[in-house]
Write a structure and sequence with these properties.
The chain has one helix and 30 strands.
Length: 322
């Protein structure tokens, strides 16, 4: 089932007339499994989209036209969340409760699972230099970084970050890993991880030590952009640590963020049921999701300029066409 709606953005902060006037169309596709709670989403090399279903314990592929294929994860109640596509055509995803990293071909088939060392809880995943990198929590609350080869060989780089939770990671324009961290010990931060010959961490603390950064991506300006869920802000930080924050509507609780093919940043607003768009200068607009109380969460961008987002409570995948 699909629903189409053309919506205009409401001006937020220094919104330009052009940005405010540009309409978008949101089409929604219902996920086959009820109460699936679709979470993270990513494009695959063949142009299809893949996403995790937290409650249904599945990963699923979707064509741009909205045709779904779902795959049950072998480990029961594994709580899959983060997902990324590798250059070799495989999708890799985290199983938080299953304490595993899962892998499936973009053509479907069998899911292979790899246990996380120390029975850790995997929290984030990305790809870089022929490897898949992931973050996990080693009990009690010790943040660790690992890489996994195409054959499943895992290498751990200890961070020594106690009472810390890595919420997201990406590869920066400087070739280093960049992560968002929540820490009751040191306060919340955006951090640079240099992985050559071990791991060297440089923390850039956020002004509010309880900002709850949730997602991070590289913008078209070669800065890192991230969400602050507790503070209702979008942050921008250079590779040298120069930080600027931009406010979004109160109660929006921004979650995932991605660079769009249009050169803007797009993000989900879990609390206000909207999709946000921000220019690299901090000019913003946002757009209502057609389904009420859908809880938009994950977001991805394809090469055609379309954005796709997940609806945790709406059990739908939204497609944004500019």
């Amino acid at each position: 089932m699909t629903h189409n709606r053309t919506v205009l953005g409401a001006c937020l902060v220094f919104c330009s007339a052009v940005a405010a006037a540009q309409p978008i169309t949101i089409t929604e596709f219902r996920v086959p499994t009820l109460s699936a709670a679709p979470a993270a989403i990513t494009p695959a090399a063949d142009g299809n989209l893949w996403f995790t279903e937290q409650n249904a314990n599945k990963v699923a592929g979707m064509t741009p036209a909205g045709a779904f294929t779902e795959y049950v994860i072998p480990t029961a109640a594994s709580a899959p969340e983060a997902i990324t596509a590798a250059a070799d055509g495989y999708l890799w995803f985290t199983e938080f409760n299953g304490r595993k990293i899962g892998r499936i071909s973009q053509y479907g088939g069998t899911i292979t699972e790899f246990a996380v060392p120390f029975e850790g809880f995997p929290t984030a995943i990305t790809r870089h230099a022929g490897k898949v990198w992931f973050a996990f929590n080693q009990q009690p609350d010790l943040a660790q970084i690992g890489s996994i080869s195409p054959t499943g060989a895992i290498t751990i780089l200890s961070t020594g970050a106690a009472l810390t939770y890595v919420t997201a990671l990406t590869v920066g324009p400087d070739g280093n890993l960049w992560v968002t961290q929540i820490s009751s010990l040191r306060g919340d931060s955006v951090s640079k991880l240099m992985t050559a010959g071990g791991v060297t961490i440089t923390d850039f603390p956020l002004p509010n030590h309880s900002a709850a950064p949730a997602s991070i991506t590289v913008g078209p300006d070669n800065n890192l952009w991230f969400t602050e869920s507790n503070d209702d802000k979008i942050g921008r930080i250079s590779t040298t640590g120069v930080l600027v924050e931009f406010a979004v509507p109160a109660g929006s609780r921004p979650q995932q963020i991605v660079r769009g093919a249009d050169g803007d940043l797009w993000f989900t607003e879990l609390g206000t049921n909207r999709i946000g768009r921000m220019t690299v200068g901090g000019q913003a607009a946002d757009f209502p999701v057609p389904t009420i109380s859908s809880q938009p969460f994950g977001i991805a961008s394809d090469l055609l300029g379309h954005r796709y987002f997940t609806e945790l409570s709406g059990d739908k995948i939204g497609k944004i066409v500019p």
